[in-house]
C-alpha cells in the first residue's frame, strides 16, 4: 500500500486531501500541532502531532521512511500570536526538501494562485519563496496553486463569504472591482491524488481554478442565494477607508490569537483579485475544475449552513459584549467601592475584600475572553463566577432580588451569553 504524509492535515484543504488519498488506497499520516483539532477532524486517522516548522531535516528523514508522497497543505494567512509566515511557508519547506533529497518520494506543494516575489502581501511573497525552494531543490515535485477554495468546511475566505451573505436586510457593497475565481475543494483533492499517483509530470506548476471570474459583490450575492437567505433590502457602499479600519482592528485581534478573515492580508488579497489560469493544469493532463454553480450544487446549503453563517457573524458581537460588560462592571465597582460595600454589609473589611476582589476578577475575565487561547476558559469562568455571585447575593444581599430594577435577574442573560460563546468556540 502506498504511503502519504499530509502537512496541515486537519485544515480545509489538508483534510480533503487526507480523505481523497485514503479513498485512493493510500496509507495516510496527517501532521499538525494540535491534538484536539486532529482528533476532531479525523479521529480514525494516524497523526503526527508536531509544530511543523520545528521538525528538523533529520526528524523528517525518520518520518518519511517508506513514504511515497508528501503533500504540504500547511499555511497561515498572516503573522499573529500563533503564526509565523516565514517559519511555516519557508523554513518548514526548506527542512522538508532537504530531507526528501535523499528519499524516493514526491513533494506536492499546495500554494496559492497569484504568488510572486513582488506580491503586495507577505503571505504571497513567503508562499513564492517556499515554491522556489521546492522547484529549485526538490527531486520530484508538483506545485498546485488553487484560487479561492470553496468547501463544506468554512475557514478564512469561505467563512467570510458565508458571514457576509448572512447579514440580515443588508448586503454591503465591498470591493466592487475585485475579480475572484473559485475552485471546489474536491477538485483540489483530486488534483493532489493525480499528482500523487504520478499522472502529472514532475516539474508541473499549475493553477487550480474555474475559468470564469466573478466580482466580489456578485460572489456574495450568489452565496446568499445558495444559503437561501432573502434578498437584501439595503445595499450600502462601504468605503475603502472603513474597510481598512476594520482590517487594522482585525490585525490587532490577530496578535491576541484570532485568525479573522477580515485581516488586512485577506482584504488586500481580495481587493487585488484572486485569479488564475487553468491552462497549465489542463495541459498537464488534469481534469478541468468545476465552475462556481457546479461547485455549489455539490455543497447543498442545509439548515446547519445557515446557522453556522449567522453564528459566525454574531460571535464577535457576543465576545465583545461580554468583554465590555465584565470590564465595565469591574471598573464601576472600583470607582465606587464604598457604595458597593454598603450594599453588601455593615462590616467594612469583609465587604471591601469582596468588592475589590470581585472587581479585579470581573476585569480579568473581561480581558481574558479577548485572548483567543483563553477565551473558552474565560467564558466558562464567567458562568461559574456569575453563579457564585447569585448564590452569594442570597446570603449577603437578598434585598437585591426584590430591587425593582432587577440587578440580580439581569445576571441570567449574561450567563446564557457566556454559555453560547463557550459552546460555539471551536478550534480548527
UniProtKB/TrEMBL annotation:
<dbReference type="InterPro" id="IPR051207">
    <property type="entry name" value="ComplexI_NDUFA9_subunit"/>
</dbReference>
<dbReference type="GO" id="GO:0044877">
    <property type="term" value="F:protein-containing complex binding"/>
</dbReference>
<keyword id="KW-0812">Transmembrane</keyword>
<feature type="transmembrane region" description="Helical">
    <location>
        <begin position="313"/>
        <end position="337"/>
    </location>
</feature>
<feature type="transmembrane region" description="Helical">
    <location>
        <begin position="407"/>
        <end position="425"/>
    </location>
</feature>
<dbReference type="Pfam" id="PF13460">
    <property type="entry name" value="NAD_binding_10"/>
</dbReference>
<protein>
    <submittedName>
        <fullName>NAD dependent epimerase/dehydratase family protein</fullName>
    </submittedName>
</protein>
<feature type="transmembrane region" description="Helical">
    <location>
        <begin position="349"/>
        <end position="371"/>
    </location>
</feature>
<dbReference type="InterPro" id="IPR016040">
    <property type="entry name" value="NAD(P)-bd_dom"/>
</dbReference>
<keyword id="KW-0472">Membrane</keyword>
<dbReference type="InterPro" id="IPR036291">
    <property type="entry name" value="NAD(P)-bd_dom_sf"/>
</dbReference>
<dbReference type="InterPro" id="IPR025695">
    <property type="entry name" value="DoxX-like"/>
</dbReference>
<dbReference type="Pfam" id="PF13781">
    <property type="entry name" value="DoxX_3"/>
</dbReference>
<feature type="transmembrane region" description="Helical">
    <location>
        <begin position="378"/>
        <end position="401"/>
    </location>
</feature>
<keyword id="KW-1133">Transmembrane helix</keyword>
<feature type="domain" description="NAD(P)-binding">
    <location>
        <begin position="8"/>
        <end position="155"/>
    </location>
</feature>
